[in-house]
Amino acid sequence: NAGVMQNPRHLVRRRGQEARLRCSPMKGHSHVYWYRQLPEEGLKFMVYLQKENIIDESGMPKERFSAEFPKEGPSILRIQQVVRGDSAAYFCASSLGSVLRVDTQYFGPGTRLTVL
Amino acid sequence: KNEVEQSPQNLTAQEGEFITINCSYSVGISALHWLQQHPGGGIVSLFMLSSGKKKHGRLIATINIQEKHSSLHITASHPRDSAVYICAVRGGSSNTGKLIFGQGTTLQVKP
Lengths: 116, 111
Hints:
- The complex is a heterodimer of chains A (about 120) and B (about 110).
- Chain A is an all-beta fold and about 120 residues long.
- In chain A, a hairpin with a 5-residue loop joins strand 4 and strand 5.
- In chain A, the strands form 2 sheets. In chain A, strands 2, 4, 5, 6, 9, 10 and 11 form a 7-stranded mixed β-sheet that branches. In chain A, strands 1-3-8-7 form a 4-stranded antiparallel β-sheet, with no helix packed on it.
- Chain A has strands at about 5, 10-15, 20-25, 30-35, 45-50, 55, 65-70, 75-80, 90-95, 105, 110-115.
- Chain A contains no helices and 11 strands.
- The mean pLDDT of chain B is about 90.
- In chain B, the strands form 2 sheets. In chain B, strands 2, 4, 5, 9, 10 and 11 form a 6-stranded mixed β-sheet that branches. In chain B, strands 1-3-8-7-6 form a 5-stranded antiparallel β-sheet, with no helix packed on it.
- Chain B has strands at about 5, 10-15, 20-25, 30-35, 45-50, 50-55, 60-65, 70-75, 85-90, 100, 105-110.
- Chain B has about 110 residues and is mainly β.
- Chain B is built from no helices and 11 strands.
- Chain B is about 0% helix and about 60% strand.
- The interface of A and B includes residues 44, 59 and 104 of A.
């Protein structure tokens, strides 16, 4: 049973370009969380998605950032018109159950975004 | 003040020593996680606790809900335990499952 997959592992973009980060949850998991770790800072929640629904996006910057988790395929975190301050490690985590249960979240290896 | 505070921030130990990392939180929670992040960045979930104590190999995690405090203990520490240990809580009133993280404790175990 493969773990949480993220790709690419490293992504370099120039200012103004778009970054697309992909996350494939563990098999059978329908809940996906995105977290960001800025250099020298702790992890911060960005967004929580279930299939085809955004449940909580309270941690997402208001502009340029969007996320989706379609019925088929991976979850995508999209950053438009990247700026140097977007350089960070972006982690995806997935869990199995409903919001009524407390589930372990399994983390992917992260995507390290560098904006030149 | 952060909702989740860890201490110490940095810890250096000799191989074989008993290690304790502390986590205090100020919000109501439904669960607390201990995570391990190695250089190179991958994150592994070590424990999820909502009460009491859990043990896995040389690792022990405890939580005191009344005092809003958790500890992670490592017995007979080894250089391969060197990593960043992160405490994270899931809010009790939140039904979204999002985690709030401490700043992490960087542990170095010397041979």
